[in-house]
Write a structure and sequence with these properties.
The protein is of the alpha+beta class. The chain folds into two domains: 93 residues, Pseudouridine synthase (2-Layer Sandwich), CATH 3.30.2350; 132 residues, 2-Layer Sandwich (Pseudouridine synthase), CATH 3.30.2350. 24% of the residues lie in helices and 34% in strands. It contains seven helices and 15 strands. The strands form three sheets. Strands 1, 2, 3, 4, 7, 10, 11, 12, 13, 14 and 15 form an eleven-stranded mixed beta sheet that branches. A two-stranded antiparallel ribbon has the order 5-6. The longest helix has 12 residues. The chain is globular, with a radius of gyration of 19 Å. The protein starts with 8 loop residues before the first strand and ends in an 8-residue tail after the last strand.
């Protein structure tokens, strides 16, 4: 029977803003000398929240956990569109925000529910001919992208104070929430972009059980091991 160490399993991290998902993987790997570390679903640099890492022999389970449904919350700013569809991009248009109530905004979310085809934004890590789209976007190039099948289980705003609205959204893997922000801005006629994003859940993993990255990096290997969900217990998270 294959033996597992205390560092073979899943680590549930609360990712801070300002670093990439790969940065988180690299910092954990270097700090604790773990040869194999991977993550189960990319978060944009300024997005925060749940990032599930797989350590050691658990990395073989990455495809299974990467396929899990996701839950997010965040804020959309109306009246300003950007080239990346989020706050990191360059402004491409600015228009007055029409009078809207929270109820009217939630009416606009209804067409987004269910099955749909979504085209990845140009500023994304999707590769065309082996080249990430964001690298082409930096050169001012725009290429045709193949739409992808996604499913939106729920999408609702809980508050609105012009020009910002707070939302919660549940969706399948591979959904670009910033594309949804861009598209709802087009629907209401003034443009919009994703201002903030936080991942709350991925499958059965929940951000309430996550540990901030800085806390993990300041701790000892024994403290890290105490946070790892052992390999043999991961079946309950499938």
């Amino acid at each position: 029977m294959l033996q597992h160490s205390a560092l073979d399993g899943a680590l549930v991290v609360d990712k801070p803003a300002g670093c990439t998902s790969h940065d988180v993987v690299d910092r954990i790997r270097r700090r604790f000398g773990i040869k194999k570390v991977g993550h189960c679903g990319t978060l944009d640099p300024n997005a925060t929240g749940l990032l599930v890492l797989l350590l050691g022999q658990a990395t073989r389970l990455s495809e299974k956990f990467m396929a899990a449904d996701k839950v997010y919350e965040g804020d959309i700013r109306f009246g300003e569109a950007t080239d990346s569809y989020d706050a990191d991009g360059q402004t491409t248009g600015s228009l007055p925000v029409p009078p809207m109530t929270l109820e009217q905004l939630n009416e606009e979310t209804k067409p987004f529910l269910g099955d749909q085809q979504q085209t990845p934004p140009m500023v994304s890590a999707v590769k065309i001919g082996g080249v990430p789209l964001y690298k082409l976007a930096r050169k001012g190039q725009e290429v045709e992208r193949q739409p992808r099948f996604i499913h939106i289980y729920s999408f609702r705003f809980s508050s609105y104070t012009e020009p910002d609205a707070h939302f919660r959204l549940a969706c399948t893997k591979g959904t670009y929430v910033r594309t949804i922000a861009h598209e709802i801005g087009q629907k209401v006629g003034c443009g919009a972009h994703l201002l903030t994003l936080r991942r709350l859940a991925s499958g059965k993993f929940d951000v309430a059980d996550a540990t901030p990255l800085d806390t993990l990096l300041k701790g000892s290997e024994a403290e890290l091991a105490a946070k790892v969900i052992p390999f043999l217990k991961l079946r309950s998270f499938e």
